[in-house]
Amino acid sequence: MSESTPQKQGKGKKEESEEQESTSKVKGPEAFEKTPEQRRKDRVEGIIKTAVASILGIIAGVVAEYILGTGAGTTWYAIIVIIAIVTYYMQRVIYPQINISTKEFGLKDWFYVEFLVIDFALVTWVLMLN
What we know:
Layout: H1 13-25, H2 36-68, H3 76-97, H4 107-129
Helix pairs in contact: 2-3, 2-4, 3-4
């Protein structure tokens, strides 16, 4: 009958403490829940990020119209890359000025705001060409 009981006797104190540490490091879902204030702050920051990226895209589209016109002499992907690079560095300067930390931005966040910039720039430029 002693064979069916768990074998805790074979474990040393070091193994038991490591097992307790590894289980204590796992956090339940309640550790990741946000407070209403944090959710509101995140929502406001998301709106600001979207607005800044959209405005930069519109400005980039207007500038592209006045500088390049129809862009017949320039390849289209070069224009997109130039817009993306310039607005990336502009956003790196703008966001800290309005109390949004760029250190918390991940790849997905930068991809999102740059997509908005390029999308708005191209749509604005095409509308101005018509």
